[in-house]
Amino acid sequence: MNSQTGIARMNWAGPFDLGIYGGVNNWFVARRAFATSVATLAQMAGLIAMPLIAQLAMMQHGWRAGWLAIGSVTLLIGFLPVWLFMVRRPEDLGLVPDRRAADDAADGATKAAQTNYPEPSFSRKQSIGTSAFWLLLLYTVLVYPVQAGVSLHQAAHLIERGIGPTTAATIVGTFSLMSAVASIACGLLPRRVQIRYPLALIGGFLAAGTLTMIGISSRGQGYFAAALFGLGIGGVLTLLPIAWADYFGRANFAAIRGIALSVQVIAQAAGPLLSGALHDWTGSYLRSLQCFALLSCLSVVAALAARRPTIGPHGRAALD
Questions:
Q1: Is residue 317 part of a domain?
Q2: What global pTM score does this model have?
Q3: What would the pLDDT profile of 69-122 be if each residue is shown by its tens digit?
Q4: Which of 116, 147, 169 is the last residue in one of the domains?
């Protein structure tokens, strides 16, 4: 079962993260934040809908029907429309990002967009040579253990702190709701705001939410902590794909992001292991939450240091 879960996780991570966000970043530059926000919200909607669909099918015809329902919905909604209608890049249809036709690129709005949001084009080798690449990778290593470690053990921690199971479930629901709110808010960010500042703010939300969870003793504190943490997670899921595309461009997004995704999956796996090991060792989630709060604070520093790179006149990476 564990090996099957691992294979399923690998099959999901590549097509979802690289495929969807690669397509979004190919088609949008000036409107990239809004488009990424919509894609992230669609992911969250799917995570809510799929268990409900499976449960309805299992109630009628058993567990086999649940798996068939999930597979059928994936094929009909996730595969067929993409296979039939999706085009990799707007240039393949004579279009340009954010506009309907290449001829429209002469209009003032598009010229302004190209001036304000110049599109970089880094190769994977060039990107690896920049400090921004390693700082964004460090940010990923710092925030994703927090995301997975706190999320997986959140309900158990609440119950240990004296919160009833039903209330704990509703608090976890608040966490998911605020993640969606954060994703919407990220989609409305002005493009003139450098992405490293929202990334740092998101790290602050993760730190604040994790620290608040340590001393939870009432439902109100639980809802407040979950709201803060949810804002952080929604921001991470939405902003990091934008950052990689804004910093290194569309042309080699998948090749560059693929390295980060490999590190991200390992970091996500490490979070619950760390949380569970420290719980077994100490008898509570206090130490793990303290570790996650520290990682979140360090992510703020990494984000602020990750300035957008440029290619100098001799092809060497430089900073703006």
A1: no
A2: 0.81
A3: 888 888 888 788 878 887 777 777 777 777 654 444 444 444 444 445 567 888
A4: 116
How many domains does one find in the chain?
A: 2
**Calpha distance 45→78 (Å, rounded):** 13
* 243 class by beta-carbon count within 10 Å (0-12 exposed, 13-18 middle, 19+ buried): buried
Is there a single domain that holds both residue 133 and residue 34? no
- Both 55 and 16 in one domain: the answer is yes
Domain of 79 in residue numbering reads as 2-116
SS3 28: coil
Q: What is the 3-state secondary structure (H, E, C) of 192-233?
A: CCCCHHHHHHHHHHHHHHHHHHHCCCCHHHHHHHHHHHHHHH
232 and 175 assigned to the same domain:
yes
Both tokens of residue 7?
Answer: 């294979």
**In this structure, are residues 153 and 292 in contact, taking their beta carbons and an 8 Å threshold?**
no
Closest CA to 209 of 197, 223, 199, 192: 223
